[in-house]
Amino acid sequence: MSDAGKPTAPPRPAGRAAMKKELPDHFKAYRHVWVFVEYEHGAIHPVSLELLGEGRKLADKLGAELAGVLLGEDRAALLPEIATVCEYGADLVYLVAQPILAHYRNEPFTRAMTDLVNTYKPEIVLLGATVLGRDLAGSVATTLQTGLTADCTELAIDDERSLAATRPTFGGSLLCTIHTLNYRPQMATVRPRVMPMPPRVPGRTGRVIEHPLDLREEDVVTKVLRFLPDRDSTKSQLAYADIVVAGGLGLRSPENLQLVRNLADVLGGDWGGSRPLVQKGWMSSDRQIGQTGKTIRPKLYIAAGISGAIQHRVGVEGADLIVAINTDPHAPIFDFAHIGIIADATEILPALTEAFRKRLTVNRLAG
Questions:
Q1: Residue 292's CB: how many other CB atoms inside 10 A?
Q2: pTM of the entire structure?
Q3: Do 267 and 210 share a domain, yes or no?
């Protein structure tokens, strides 16, 4: 039989590209990238500045503008913060300044954010995965009936102009990339220190759009009576430490965590550990490093007796220099560490501590 007489097979789909659909017309009204700027007690949370750097990349890829969203009590007091947001990459700032926004409360902040989104229609909205950001993001996404990807470790724009939000799943054993295909805006939260801090450009300016908020204090159920600072809030500064030393199950006993603390003290850094140590009760959860703990970006990270599962890797791979100490030459941590030492951490840590102590003493005497 000639080729002409053969039955013709139906064309095979070529993956997602073959299923590409034209965006609905109402999606086309959604443009630009927004970053919610977390501002509390006179300061911008560093994660908002980190997100401005990441938002700038997304906006440039889309050919869109990058906007910061700033909510607070007094316009005059927020002027320096507006300048900061622009210097970190924003083209414009949406400002809602009302006394009702003096302190964070879910109801007025959700109302302000949803009013802004419904009025100006951003394509992407990013928030920090802090206590405040997580609370607000869930409420805003639910109110707007759109998708939200939480605790992302990577953000990108795919070939169809969709936000590709990557996050760990199954307890940190896998990474998955999530797309919000049928709803807008696309929303994501990112934890502190996952993204690098962008460079500041002094003198860079942008536009300011002020938006009213039609909400009265008597309409808000929650009241702020007074602010009580957490006395323990500064006990662990892992997320912003330049040097971090951490221990894992390779230390073999909770008493050997003192070896980690000793080295951190000599180096002037902070200390922590992997999730199994928290689960065993060897240390408090505020010192856990990894996807379900603290994400860190130190100049130096020393991991002692940590195997390096993906959940831990996600939390530390932003470090400039990773030194791994482990008796197992096949430990996953050696796949991403810059320097690997195959040895017993309980023997190496005291030796390192003494060597650094002597070196620092010599430097002080020479100085």
A1: 17
A2: 0.76
A3: no
